[in-house]
User: What shape does this take?
Amino acid sequence: MDRFEQYEIWAQTGSASKWEFVAAFHDFDVASAVAARRGRGVRLIHAIYEGGKLTEQHVLAELGSTRQNP
Assistant: This one.
C-alpha cells in the first residue's frame, strides 16, 4: 500500500466556517513560507495518505483567525 505525507495549505472562504484547499508541498519549509505569505485565514496541515486515502491530518498552524473547537 502506498503511503505518503504532505503539507497542505487551506484558506478560509467567504464563510468563516468553510475551508478551501490551496496547495500541497512535500517540504515543510516551503509550505510554511507559502502559508505565512498568504496572510489571514490560513491553515497549515500535515496530512498522511495511505492507498490514496487520507488517514491522518494534524493542524500545525492556523494564521490570522482564532481557532474554534467544536
Summary: The two ends are 33 Å apart (CA to CA). The mean pLDDT is 88. The helical segments are 28-38. Strands lie at 3-12, 19-25, 42-50, 53-63.
